[in-house]
Each structure stands twice: as structure tokens, then as C-alpha cells.
């Protein structure tokens, strides 16, 4: 029987593990990801070549490898369309699975979106009991969303294999006067996107625009400034959370059977209670008659801020390799 290896490739870290009991333990190997975020100025072609080499090295002879990749991709073909943290404004079609099969035909390769894997693990471990539909939103170096119909155990995607690329939709206008006239670029090459404000890199840029004391070492020191209730830090948190709250309010308006949504990723998990309280406050703002059901009591049952390790893409990659959820066009 071949060995199953899981690989999680994000904008910051490249992780390798081989069994659910090991994931999160010291046996998981972690190195810096071959991303534009970590290697500014390096060509996309060079980064892709490095990624192929690292995946090749991670795969033992004759193994089954399930990859969780932080990129927009078609999981039926393993073709990758883009990733702002990994490759900036790249908009091609990188045949990752085909290249891996050509390079290592002895290995069985599967490639999944990282949100697919995060959703699978969150559903299995934290949020899926009794839910009709479940969603998972990551707030990290990038922003994206996935949902699954648990009555059919399916993740529905479009003809290109995509669902939930909300990080590159237009964000609501910022309200802080110091940020109102500030350019808010997105790592994909656009401007004014949800990821421009809500992602880790976006928050770092806003911290510099607000001249926060922690700006040059962000995110280090940011939670201390929040704890001290410094105005600039509180303002940054409000502006970073605003587009995320807007997305979640919209999801619940158009998909009322989404019983549970988990929010994870480095930003949400590291800010913990600060993030959860601000997100709940903004979701529950009463703006019209349509919001009457948005109460803190109900949102506490439908919103889960994932704790570190609670929605792990490595474990999710192994679950997807086992067929825990299916992806259907």
C-alpha cells in the first residue's frame, strides 16, 4: 500500500505531513514557501520551478500526494489560474498536476484548493454536526471562501472549477479619514479589493498609512496596541474587519441555510478575541429591516473563529484524498 503524503503550500509556509495523528505535531516539516510574498522581485517562472522541485522532493517513491494549494485552481485538472501571495498578478493557466505527473510518474498526485482542505477539516473537527451547509473563510496572506452542501457532501464550483474567490471583489469604502485618500493596492495588481484591506499584507500597508508605532514590525506589537486601546490600532482593526463582515452578511442573506461559517487563517487566529468581537459587532449592525435577525446570540451559534490548528489544510488534504467531500461542477 502506498504512503499518503499531504503538502500545504501557502503564501508564507510550505508544510509536509503524512498522517492525521502527526499533523500539528513536531513531525510536520515546515519551510518558507517559494512565493512572491517571501521572495519579492523573483520571477514567477523561477518561483514555479522551485515549487515543482520542492513538491518532487517531498514525494517518496510510489507515494500518493495530496496537495493543498493557496491558489485559484480547477481541482478536476490541477490547473492553477493565479495566487496573489504566490505569484502576484499572474493570470495564466499553470498545469501543475500535469507537470508533476510528467516529472514524477511514479507518484499519484492530487491538487486541491487550500480552502477546500480547510473546509474539510473544519467540517470534520469543529463545525459540521447537524449543519445543512457549512462555510469556511480564510483571512491570511490572501482571502477566500468555500462552502459545502453537507446533505450531499458536495462543494459546488463553476465551469472553471472556482468558488468563493471573494478576496478580489470590491471592498466597501474605508471610513477612517486618514485612509480615505490612501491607495489600497491588492497583491493581485488591482486596487480596493477585500484583500487590499483585510489580508495580512493589506493590514501592514494600512498600519504604515496610519503611522502606527508597530507599523515597521507589523504584526508584532499590534495586539499590544489593541490591548492598550490605542485609537489608530482600533481604527485599523475596524477597517480590516469591515469587508469581511460585509461578505458574511451577504452570504447569510443569499444562502440562509449556511448554518455555520468558520473564519480562520493567520490574521483571524492570531488576533483571536479582538477579531471575533469586532467581526460580531459589525455583522450585527442594524441597517435595515432585513437585519433584524442578526443578533449576537444567533451569530454566536453560526460564526466560529477557528483557533490555531482547528482548521488545518494538511489534515484537510488527507481527508480530501479519502473522499470526505466531493467537488462538483
UniProtKB/TrEMBL annotation:
GO function terms (MF aspect): kinase activity
A Pfam family this chain is assigned to:
ROK
Q: List UniProt keywords, sorted A-Z.
A: Kinase, Transferase
User: Which InterPro entries did the record assign?
Assistant: ATPase_NBD, ROK
Family as reported in the entry's similarity comment: Belongs to the ROK (NagC/XylR) family.
What is the official name of this protein in its record? Putative NBD/HSP70 family sugar kinase
Q: Which organism is it from?
A: Kineococcus xinjiangensis
